[in-house]
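U., I forgot to send this yesterday:
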Amino acid sequence: MLTRGDILYLAQPVPDQAIEGTLLVTSSKRSDCAGNTQVKVSIADLQEMQNDFAANVDGGFDVIAGQQGTQGIPPAPGAVPQPSDAPLSKGSDAAALDAVITQQRQDAVQTESQVQQEALANSPS
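Result:
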């Protein structure tokens, strides 16, 4: 059984038409699924988990923002826009910009995959 606080890892992207995904339990409470157990979770439940997690993170940020400058939390710097030193190019080539963005996305996916692999390798069994 999975409960709040269990940590799951989605090793492979879920195909577009799938109704469930296979995840690996990387950390859980003693009464829940053992670590390194594969579980199938419906797409609807995965989406609900993601939404709940995002809401909790947002709520945590709201708490921290509300407590800044108190209880040992330093005040945030002012939200003053900073000018960029990067020159604006005239007539930028859209294809070149698309290529840069595509490369950055690929780099991000590769980095995320490496981090997940390292986390799995370093997780307690």
